[in-house]
Amino acid sequence: DAKTTQPPSMDCAEGRAANLPCNHSTISGNEYVYWYRQIHSQGPQYIIHGLKNNETNEMASLIITEDRKSSTLILPHATLRDTAVYYCTVPYGSSNTGKLIFGQGTTLQVKP
Amino acid sequence: DAGVTQSPTHLIKTRGQQVTLRCSPKSGHDTVSWYQQALGQGPQFIFQYYEEEERQRGNFPDRFSGHQFPNYSSELNVNALLLGDSALYLCASSPWIRRDQPQHFGDGTRLSIL
Question: Is the pLDDT of residue B99 over 80?
């Protein structure tokens, strides 16, 4: 199975950018990378996804390396409400609606 | 526009019992996936349903079974419950035809086995 590797924890000062890295060296050419976050044991909340190009939405930016073996999620101005577990996921299977492979994620602590 | 809804939110069972969890997908979605999340771990894929058929399955025993209804809602059934089945069970939905679109998750059912 394709899998992802993330640092277990990171700290970020409130108002600063949070940069969360992820390695997905076994990703296939047509598989997207999806980022989710989970707060207080709620369900994972979708943040952003990408294939090859960098992506930006109202929540975050996603930078994908040219070889697609790693990516970085950027929260441009972190707030205390961004404290959560962040998961980088890739699908496994013949389609992108296949099972998502979750690692243990990165616990981001945003500090005042 | 309602998102993914799951019921019940919490459930307590004893070993050996059977349980049924329910999920209604996000409007416009026809594919439902189920995940198990143990405390402190990432979600683990159980199986996926589309057109009322199981399309993919993770490494879970046959005690875990599912069903999808014509209205795309789904059930997860677990028989002969074990203490290790205690977890948060998550349902996610997505559109089959738009395979780049992300799965959207419900808030889960917290199952505790005594």
Answer: no
